[in-house]
Structure formats: C-alpha cells, structure tokens
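To: structure subgroup
Subject: Chain for Friday's discussion

All,

I'm putting the inputs and outputs inline so they're searchable in the archive.
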Amino acid sequence: MIAIAPLAVVVAACGSGTSDVVSYTDPDKLSLVNLPTEWHTYEIAELSALEDVPFAEPYQGFDYPAVSSLAFDGAPARDVSNITNSLAVVDFPIGAMSVRTVGDIERQYLNRAALSQSILPYFQFLDSQEHVREDFSFGDGYDGVRVLVSYVDDTGAEVGIAYLISVTDPADNRMYSIVAGCSRDCYITNQVEIERVVDSWLVNKKAS
C-alpha cells in the first residue's frame, strides 16, 4: 500500500503554503506555471538537444510535436540531464509543461488515454494504480483529464508517482499538459509542493 494523502485534501491545503514561487511562461505565452524559487527550469532549446526528451512519448504510433516546452526540477544543482531520470528512482521532483500539436490523423484517435499516456506511458509499467483519474476542464472547451498515478519500474523494485493534467483546445488542434513526480519516498515528502505546482498551471485560452 502506498501512503499518498488524498489529492483533494492536499489541493485544499495548497493556499496555506509559505514557499516563494516564480511564474514561468513560454515565449508565446501559451501556458503558465508557478514554481518554487529554488527549482530549476529548462527551455525547449535545451530539451531538444537531449537524445530522448522526457514526458513527450508517442502513443499507439502517433507523435505530438512540441510547440513549446518547459521542464523543471527540484534538484540540488541545475543540470538538464536531471529530468531524464526515471521517476521511480529520482529523489527530487522533476516534471514539464508542454504544448503540442495534434495532427489530422492523430485527432481521429485522440482520447483520454492518449492525453495521459503521451505524457507518461504508465500503462506499460507493472502494477500501475490510478489513485485519481477524473475529467478536468478549464472551461470553454479546454477539456481533458487529471491523474495521480503510481507504478513499479522495470526492475520491479522501485515505485514512481506522478501527478498530471492534460487537456486539448476546443478544436483538438493542440494538447496542453503538465506533469510532475518522483520516487515514492520523494513524492510523499514533497507531495504538497508537487501538487501545488501542477495545480498552479494555466493555459491561455485566447492563444488558440
């Protein structure tokens, strides 16, 4: 049994935090997130140089190219390779917010599974458990899913936990997503902070 505080309780408590935060947005101001001041950020140019960009996975053979992306971590020192770690083994929070295009063919197969699995393909891992899975909406047709999930990695020994929100615009031309998480012990320690970050995320509904 993984001891995760109920998400609704944590979300309700977020406003009482005292950590200083900084607001970050992409150059086109498509989305915004508030991060603790001591966390580090990595923009799309740095991410594009990685061999495998995290939190941007193909799903059922479909890719969703990034329009913008901002990764982040709560590591002791800034290093873009921090975010390439598996959530199940990393001992500090990592995550990313992104805006990706949905092609004509991909749009025909777009569903709630694609919204989550193209960010983190936890269906393929052992013992994945969705502690929260519910519809989520910013209103005005910006609808999707909110998930809190835990899973066992390929070794069968380590557990990762992630919290994500993923929505599309009204025309299903773009997918907007945010995810953050880390290993089980790390998540339990940093749960309020991680969920505060994800819940601070906003999309610019005037930019589509």
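Points worth raising on Friday:
The first strand starts at residue 21 and ends at 25.
Confidence is low (pLDDT under 50) at residues 7-18.

D.
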